[in-house]
Amino acid sequence: MGVFVFLPLVLPLTALPLARLAEHHLHPRSASVFLASVAVVLAACSTFCLGLLVVVGTAQLPGNPLPDSWSDPEVRAAVPYDEVAGKAAIVALALVVVACALTLRRHVRFRLRAHRALAGLGTGAGVGVGIGSAEVAVLDDEEPYAYALPGSPGRIVVSTGMLSCLDEAERRALLAHERAHLAGRHHRLLLAVQLAGCANPFLRPLRAAVMYGTERWADEEAARVTGDRRITARAVGKAALFSRRVTTPGLAAFAAAGPVPRRVAALLGPVPPRGSWPSALTRAGMAACVAAAGTAASTLSAFNAALALFVALEAATPL
After folding, report:
1. By the 8 A CB rule, do 50 and 240 touch?
2. CA-to-CA distance for 117 and 111, rounded, in angstroms?
3. What is the Cα–Cα distance from 126 to 245, expressed in whole angstroms?
4. To the nearest whole number, what is the mean pLDDT of the chain?
5. Residue 243 in contact with residue 162, Cβ under 8 Å?
């Protein structure tokens, strides 16, 4: 196999052109789900490859619990510089495990603390139309922020500072936006691409693309519910002007993720088509097809390289 065994570690770079095309030519819903799926598949191949490299590179070390046959020259020949690659893979895999564990821990702790803090909180009745519902938690805080907190049930957390920046129609757009985050389970997509970025740094740009896609998805849902794209655009723009970035690990914060000017410009433009890819006869369609074919080939190559190394180990395993 030679150097091809390292393909799963570097092929995630090929997904970046597809992310740019998906942002510009796909409906935000389709782009978010598709890019998150690509990130998870490539991250899984990359992590699996690291694990196999650890096995091949360390099987010959004395005292290891692995089968002796895994240190045969035929198996080690599948990986160039197997000892160096194996030791480097140990460090890389340890960093992946630690980074993913810390990300999950931070995400879970934030959600638990937030739900405990909101357990006995009133719903803020009288602040505005629709604000007094049980799903909305209004915090007495001058700092403007709003985000969707998933759970059973999910809650919308919004500060009085944010509500004071918006008029009644813009508050409806804000709530519709956050309800779209909860209904679409956007926190799962965001957490998936965040973990994928921990598994392979080359996948981190996909996280930014999915964050932007989920915000655009929620923007379009808010515009559909309110029936006014300009009001939704105005709410996004005003919230961005007054708010600061709120630390909500793996969650979606209103006007805190994604390039806000692009979101506002998209809302002031036509409704994005719900079709899949642009026509292959157009320049954008041809570019999208080429990028999709390249990404699919890269994914299959990464899977094939990891599988080939696994088959080599399995063939050397005594019955």
Report:
1. no
2. 10
3. 27
4. 77
5. yes
The torsion angles phi and psi of 155, rounded to 5 degrees, stand at -130, 155
Global pTM? 0.79
* Best CA proximity match to 176, nearest among 104, 237, 235: 235
255 Cβ contact list (under 8 Å, min separation 6): 146, 236, 239, 240, 243
Q: Quickly tell me which residue has 């240190």 as its tokens.
A: 71
Q: Which amino acid is at 180?
A: A
pLDDT digit string, tens, across residues 186-203 = 999 999 999 999 999 988
Q: Which residue has the tokens 């990130």?
A: 39
